[in-house]
Automatic annotation (TrEMBL):
Organism: Gottfriedia solisilvae
Keyword Translocase: no
Intracellular or extracellular location(s): Cell membrane
Annotated GO CC locations: plasma membrane
Transmembrane portions of the chain: 12-35, 47-69, 90-115, 127-147, 168-187, 193-216, 245-265, 297-317, 338-358, 370-392, 404-422, 428-446, 458-479, 494-514
InterPro entries per record: PG_synth_SpoVB, Poly_Biosynth_Transport, Polysacc_synth
Membrane topology: Multi-pass membrane protein
Pfam families hit by this protein: Polysacc_synt (PF01943)
Signal peptide as annotated in the record: none
Keyword Nucleus set for record: no
UniProt protein name: Cell division protein
GO biological process, one term: cell division
Keywords: Cell cycle, Cell division, Cell membrane, Membrane, Transmembrane, Transmembrane helix
Length: 540
C-alpha cells in the first residue's frame, strides 16, 4: 500500500474518531435541557458501569486485531489472519453475552452503593432498571470491534469510521427524539425517558454492526482473493493466536478503563460522603456538574489533542525498532508539543469562560461554572496520560503504563473520601488530578529511561506555550470584563453563548496569531506539515 493511501486512511480514522467523539459530547447539551439534573444523574449511574464493562468485553480488540492482521498480512500469511477472524467471532460473542449477564445480575448489588442512604431523587429501582437496559448493548459491541479491527488490519479505515458514525447518529437521534416524545408528548416520567435513552446504545450497536456486515459482504470477494496467495509457512494453533492477540490487547484495555474506573470510584463514594457531611441536598446535583456536564465539555479538547498526538505514535514505534534514537527523540518531542499546543489554550480558555460557558450549554449556575473552571485543567492530564501510555506501547514497555494506572487508581481510592470531606466537589476533582499526576510522573520516568529521552527541550517549549496561553487568558479576561459592563451570564443562555463566542474568538486570534508570528507552527509541526496545512487553509 502506498504511503499516501496509508496517510489518507489514518487521517480519515483520526478525523472520524474526533467527529464521532464530538457528537457524543455535544448531544448532552439538549439532552440535559430535556431531562435536567435528576435525569442526567440517572443516565450517568447506568452509563459509567456500562462503559467499564465495554472496555473489558472488547478487551482492546480493534487495535489488537488490526495489529495481528497487519503483521501476518505483511509476511503474506493471509490464511492465519482469516483463521483468527473466524476463531475470534465465537470468542467475542461469548464474552459479550457473559459481560451482559454479569452486569445484569450485579445491578441490584451496585445500584444502592451509588445513591445516598436517604435519597429523595432517583431510587435504587430506577438505577437497577437503567443499568439492566443499557447492559443489553454488551451483546453486540464486541462483535463490532472484531470487524473494525479486521478492516483496519487491511489498512481500510472507512468501515470503522462509517459504522461508528452511523452508530453514534442512531444513538443520539433515538435518545433525543425518544426523550422528547416521552416527556413532552406522552407525559411520561424521567425514569422512562432515561430507560429509552440508555436502550439507544443497544440500537446504535445493532446499527453499527449492520453497516459492518454490509462492508464485509461487499469486500469479501476481494479479501478472498488474498487467501490463495498465502505462503502457508506458519500454522499457529488457536491457543497461540489468542495468546498473541491478548498480549497486544491488554494495554489497550487498561487505557480504556482509566476514566471509567475513576468515575466509578466517584459513583460509589461521592453521594454517601456528601450526605455524611450534611450536604445531601446538593449531592446529586453537584455530582452531575463535575462527572457529567463539566466532564463532557473538557473532553472536547482532550479528543482533539490525543487524536493528533496519537497519529505520531506509529513513527515512534518504527524509530524505536530501527534503533534510530535521533528520530525517536524528535517524534516524542513533537507528540508532547502537539498535545500541549492544542490542549493548554483550550483548558485556559474554558477556565476563564467557565461561568458563561456552563450557562450557555447547560443552565445558569454559578456553582456549575466554578466546578467547570476547577475541573478544566484535568483535561491536560487526560491527554498526557493517553499519550504517555501510547508512547510506552511504542517502546514495548506497556507494563509500566499498566502499573502507573493501578497506582493512580489506588491514590484516587485513598484520597477521594478525605478530600471530599475537606473540599466537597473540588475534593473529588483534586483526587482524580492527583491520581493522574502520579501515573503521568511514573510514565515519564520510564519513557526517560527506556528512550534515553531528555525532557529539557520539551519543558522549554511548554514554558513558552504557558506564557502564550497566559497572554491569551489576559486578553479574554479583559474582553469579558469590558462586555460585563453591559451584560453577564446571568442574563440568559443566548447572552452567555454570545460571551463565549466572543471570548473564544478573541482567544483564538491572540493565541494563533502570536504563535504564527513567532513561528511556533513550524517549531511544533515541522516545516513540511505547516506549509501543507496553510496551503489547505488558503485554498479553503
Amino acid at each position: 500500500m502506498s504511503d499516501s493511501k496509508l496517510l489518507r486512511g489514518t487521517f480519515i480514522l483520526t478525523a472520524g474518531t474526533f467527529f464521532i467523539k464530538f457528537l457524543g459530547m455535544i448531544y448532552t447539551f439538549p439532552f440535559f435541557a430535556l431531562v435536567g439534573t435528576q435525569g442526567s444523574a440517572l443516565y450517568n449511574y447506568g452509563y459509567v458501569p456500562y462503559t467499564l464493562f465495554i472496555s473489558i468485553a472488547t478487551a482492546g480488540v480493534p487495535l489488537a486485531v488490526a495489529k495481528f492482521v497487519s503483521k501476518y498480512n505483511a509476511i503474506e500469511e493471509y490464511e492465519t489472519s482469516r483463521r483468527l477472524f473466524h476463531a475470534s467471532q465465537l470468542l467475542l460473542i461469548c464474552t459479550g453475552f457473559l459481560a451482559f449477564l454479569v452486569l445484569y445480575c450485579i445491578a441490584p448489588i451496585i445500584a444502592p452503593l451509588m445513591l445516598p442512604k436517604d435519597t429523595h431523587g432517583n431510587s435504587v429501582e430506577d438505577v437497577v432498571g437503567v443499568i439492566r437496559i443499557v447492559s443489553t448493548a454488551l451483546i453486540f459491541v464486541p462483535s463490532q470491534s472484531l470487524y473494525r479491527g479486521f478492516f483496519q488490519g487491511h489498512q481500510s479505515m472507512g468501515p470503522t469510521t462509517v459504522s461508528q458514525l452511523f452508530e453514534q447518529v442512531v444513538r443520539i437521534v433515538f435518545t433525543l427524539v425518544g426523550s422528547y416524545l416521552i416527556l413532552k408528548v406522552f407525559g411520561g416520567t424521567i425514569t422512562q425517558a432515561i430507560g429509552l435513552s440508555t436502550f439507544a446504545a443497544t440500537l446504535g450497536a445493532i446499527g453499527g454492526l449492520l453497516i459492518l456486515f454490509w462492508y464485509w459482504k461487499k469486500r469479501k470477494t476481494h479479501l478472498d482473493e488474498l487467501l490463495p496467495k498465502s505462503k502457508g509457512n506458519i500454522h499457529p494453533t488457536n491457543k497461540e493466536m489468542f495468546k498473541e492477540l491478548f498480549s497486544y490487547s491488554i494495554p489497550y484495555v487498561f487505557v480504556g478503563l482509566a476514566i471509567p474506573l475513576y468515575q466509578l470510584i466517584d459513583q460509589f463514594t461521592y453521594n454517601r460522603t456528601m450526605e455524611s457531611i450534611g450536604l445531601k441536598e446538593i449531592a446529586e446535583s453537584t455530582y452531575v456538574m463535575f462527572s457529567f456536564t463539566s466532564h463532557k465539555l473538557v473532553m472536547i479538547p482532550v479528543s482533539l489533542a490525543t487524536a493528533f498526538g496519537l497519529t505520531l505514535v506509529p513513527a515512534i514505534t518504527e524509530a524505536f525498532v530501527n534503533k534510530n534514537e535521533k528520530k525517536l527523540h524528535s517524534q516524542i518531542t513533537q507528540t508532547y508539543q502537539v498535545v500541549f499546543f492544542l490542549t493548554l489554550p483550550a483548558v485556559v480558555g474554558i477556565s476563564v469562560l467557565a461561568e458563561p460557558m456552563y450557562s450557555a450549554f447547560y443552565e445558569k449556575s454559578q456553582l456549575g461554572g466554578i466546578i467547570l473552571g476547577f475541573y478544566a485543567p484535568v483535561a491536560l492530564l487526560y491527554s498526557l496520560f493517553t499519550v504517555n501510555v501510547a508512547i510506552l506501547q511504542g517502546l514495548d514497555r506497556q507494563r509500566y503504563a499498566i502499573k502507573g494506572l493501578i497506582y493512580g487508581v489506588i491514590i484516587k481510592i485513598a484520597l477521594n473520601v478525605p478530600l471530599i470531606y475537606l473540599l466537597q466537589t473540588k475534593g473529588a476533582i483534586l483526587a482524580t488530578a492527583l491520581g493522574y499526576m502520579f501515573s503521568i510522573g511514573y510514565n515519564f520516568y520510564y519513557i526517560k529511561k527506556y528512550a534515553n529521552f531528555s525532557f529539557n527541550r520539551v519543558l522549554r517549549r511548554i514554558l513558552f506555550m504557558i506564557i502564550l496561553s497566559a497572554i491569551m487568558a489576559g486578553a479574554v479576561f479583559i474582553v469579558e470584563q469590558f462586555l460585563g459592563i453591559w451584560f453577564t451570564y446571568n442574563d440568559g443562555r443566548l447572552v452567555s453563548m454570545i460571551l463565549v463566542l466572543i471570548g473564544a474568538a478573541v482567544g483564538a486570534v491572540v493565541y494563533l496569531g502570536v504563535a504564527y508570528k513567532l513561528n511556533l507552527f513550524e517549531i511544533i509541526l515541522g516545516t513540511r506539515l505547516t506549509n501543507r496545512l496553510f496551503k489547505r487553509v488558503k485554498r479553503g
